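ok so i was messing around last nite and threw this chain in just to see what happens. nothing serious, just curious
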Amino acid sequence: MHNDPMHRTDTLNPNKDFIGGKQKRHWIEFQLLDEQGEPLANLPYRAVNEATRERVVPEFLGRSDAEGVIRVEGLHPLPITLLMEANPLADQLQTRRLRAERAEPPRPVIGDRTPLYGPQRSGFSPIEKQALAAGRCYHYLRIGQLCDQQPTFQPPLNDSNKLPAFHFPERKFNGFTVSGDELDRRHVLEVCPFRAWSLMLHHQSGYSLVNAYNLGLMSILAYSTRDERELGSVNEFFEQQCLDLSRTPRVWDNGQAWPCVVVDVPFSDRYLTIKALDTAKADVPEGHTQLLYAISASQALVAWRGTEMEGLADLITDATFRPVKPEIAAVCEPKVPCPDLTAVGSVHLGFRDAFEVARRVFDTDFGKTILGGARDKKLFICGHSLGGALGLIHAASLKNHNPLLYTYGMPRTFTLHAVQFLGDLWHFRHVNDMDAIPRVPPEAALDNYLYDAYGPVGLLAGFSWSLRQAVSSAVFKHEDPFSHHGEIAMFFRAKQHQQQEITPYPAYRKPDGTPYRSTIAYELPEKAKLYLVPSLSEDGDQQVEQATQCLNTSLNAESRARFFPRYSNPATGRMPRIGDHFMSQYQPYIHNQLLESIDAERDPLLERQVQRRKFEQQLKDYYGSIHEDELTRNRVFLDLQRLVDQALHITQRVAGGTEALQRFNAIADPKAYYEKTDG
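result:
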C-alpha cells in the first residue's frame, strides 16, 4: 500500500460532532405553458427529492396556479423531480392547440443513430426566446416526460404495451428532474399538447383546393405496396407519422416526399382503424382489387388504388368496356337486402366486377367497419384512374350516407341515365389536359347484340362495332352512352395563335384583278397551364359583388355549357396523351396551385405565375390578330383561374385552418415538383 499516493491512515476518530447554524433552504418555480403560451392551470402535482424519499421531509404536493406556476420552498440543495398527475394533465393537454410551425427535424437515414423523436432544437420556440430574455431557464417537454404514470387512453390503444413514441419517449414515468445547482430560479416548461395529426378535409358540396391536394395524396398512398412497418406504407403513415408532432406527415412516392395539409386534433380523435386491403392477398385470393381505409372520430376515408402496370389483371378490368345493368347491391350490413346502385342506366362491366369482388371478399370491412364509420362520421372517397371508377361505384353504393368523392384521371364508368340518377352525389373529377383515360370508354352506345352473340369473342366484336358507331359521328351521342359524373376540375394547357393574311401566288388574280389571299395561323411562343373549376363561377353567380371583383369576363350558364359540356370533357382539338395520366402529372399542379393560393404575393413569384403573366401580356400584345373564339376562350379561362383562390376560403375560416396553411407553406418547396406546361 506504500505505493498508493491516495492512501491515508488516521489514528484519530474521524467522526466528530459538528454544531452549525440553521441550513440555508432553497426554492424553485416551474411555470407550465402550452405551445401557444397559455398556462396549464389547476393541475395536481407532487415534487420529490432525496430528502422526501428518505422521509426527512414530506413530499411536496399542490396544484399549479392560474398562471401555471408551481412554487416549491424549503428545499435542501438536492436534485428535485416534478411529477404531474397523469389523467388531469392528459385531459387538459388534449384541449390545447399546437403552434403553426414545427421544428421539422430531418428524418434519420439508415445508419444514423439520431433518435427519431429527439429534443426540440434550441432557438425554435417563441416561448423559449421570451423565457431566456427574462432570465428564466427553458425546457420543452412532452406528456410522458412529466406524468407520474400511464394515463387512461379513451379510446384505448390498439396495443396497451406500446405507447406512442413521440408523446412517451421514455419507457418509465420518472418525471422531470432539475439538478441542485439549478434551484432558486424559475423554469419555464413548454409542454407539447397531447394531440395527433388529422388530414384537413372539408365535407361540403363546393370545391376545396385542400381536399383536392390531400385526397390526391391518399390516391397516391393507395398504390403503396410497402410492408406495414416500412416508411411510406399505409400503416406507417397513419399509425406513426400522424402521431409524430415534430414533423408534418408525408406521403412517399418514387423518391418524392409530399407534405400533407394537416390539423392537430385531440389524441382521442386520432385515426384508430387503418387497413390496406388487397383481394389477391385475401384468405381466398380472388381478383386484383386494392384499397385502403382509415377511420377517426370524425372521418371515414377510403382510397382506391388505380391501374397497376405490372401484370394484366387491372388492364383487363379497364378494357372490359361492356355496359351492364348495375345489378350490384348497395353496401349494407351482411345478410340485409339492398337496392341496386341505380334504378336506370348501366355500368362498366369490368369496374362493376372489380368492385363486387372487393365487397364480397371483404364483406365485414365493407358491411360493418366502413359502413359503421359512414353512419356518424364524414365520409370521404377518392381514387386515381381505375381507383376513381371504383370510388364512384363505392360512393354510389353509399349515396344515402352523403359521401364526398374526389377522383383523378378516371374513365367513364356509368351511362348517361345512371349518371343523371346520381346527380345529387358530391363528386369533383380532375382531368389533366389531354389525359387519354378520361376519354374512354367512348361516348357511344356500347350495348349491342354482338356482346351476347359469340361469348368472350363477342366482347371484342361488340366493342369494335360500338367504336365504329362512335367515330361515325362528330358528336358521340346515342341513346344511353357512357358519360362522366361529377363537376370537372381541369388543368388546361392554353395556347395562342396569330392570324396573318398571305398571298401565296401573286401571279394568280381574281377576275377583278385583286390577288388571292389566304389566312394562316402560327403558334405564339408563350403558353400557360390553367386551373379551371367552372363550378366556382356558379358560386359567383349567387354572390354578384364577389363575382364582379373576381371576373372581368362573366362565365354565364350559356358559356359554361359551351366550354364545359355537362357529362363530358371540354373539347381541346388536340390528341389525347397517356403521359398526362399519371398522378406524378396531377399532383405537382395541385401542389403548386395550393402554394400560390396561400400566398399569391410571395417573393420570388412561382414560375407558374411568371409564365401566366407573360401569357396575359402576349394576349394584350396580339389581341387584334388572335382568332375571336380563341381570344374569348382564353380570357374566360384566365378569369376562371383567378377564381381558384376562392377554393381556399373554407380552410381559412375553420378552426386550425389558417395554422394548417401556414405550416404547409413553411415546409413546402416551390421548386420541388415540376409541373409540365407544354409537350
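not much to say yet. The mean pLDDT is 85.
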